[in-house]
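Async update (no meeting this week)

Hi team, since we skipped the sync, here's where things stand on the single-chain job. The sequence we agreed to prioritize is pasted below, unchanged from the tracker. I ran it this morning and attached the output directly underneath so nobody has to dig for it. Comments welcome in thread, and please keep replies under the output.
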Amino acid sequence: MPSTDAVPRSGATAAHRDETADLEAGLEAGLDAMEPYAVGRPLGLRTLLSKALPPAIAILIVLASWQLAFHCEVKPHYQLPSPSDVGRALRQKWLEGTLLSYVWVSVSRGALGFAASLVIGTPLGLLVARFRLLRAAIGPILSSLQSLPSVAWVPAAIIWFGITDTAVYTVVLLGAVPSIANGLASGLSQVPPLFVRVGRTIGANGLRGVRHVLLPAALPGYLAGLKQGWAFSWRSLMAAELIATSPDLGTGLGQLLDQGRTNSDMSLVLAAIVLILAVGMGVELLIFAPIERRVLCRRGLLPDVGPS
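Output:
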């Protein structure tokens, strides 16, 4: 009798295994079908056009309005040059071989200052979010620092450190660190407590919990803080370069802006402004926008942008 029962039982087990495998395969296929965004999926032509056309049209409208104001002499031509005049000023700096050096000096300072702000602001935001006493003590101070114009720190930094790179980086840090810390603290405060409890249940405590549970869950808010921190650091850098001018500091875009003001060369002033805007827009579009889209799509917060 035992031997006769073994065959049906083994057959039932094999059938059960096959059914389980089919269910797992179907579940995996269903999850793949429900994926809101395929990260590796190439963008279609229609999607690229829909992203490129609106800003291109906006730029054309601005240039046309600018040219119209120049033609109607809303301001004297020495106060409001035409777009072609600004283009010639940029071309002149390019031919002199100094244009890229101006951009590089400012971009390298901005990147280094932002990296230092990231190293300081991230643990500060984590501590503020994790400890109520610390949040009550310095949370309002961080918010106040975030609302303080960065240019207000320039005179103090010059008095403390002189017209040096240290003064410039101090202004950048004071402008960017509060934004990064507040962004991370805000993102962590919105993490559901259930995530924390589940993490503790599976052994994600302490630094492991921070790394594998809290930071991934707070990533959208943290990323928003990083974007704002970069904006504040870039703005702070331009304010510092505009005021703290010295041959020892090199010539960045802020110093180029000051050169145009000193020489009453409005074409050079507007050329420097165009470069400052271009760098800020480039960092946003080439670095932060793809990262933000990837994060939001993985959470199902953006629609499918696959090929059409």
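Quick observations from my side:
DSSP finds twelve helices and no strands in the chain.
Residues 1-9, 23-41, 304-308 have pLDDT under 50 and may be disordered.
Reply here if anything looks off.
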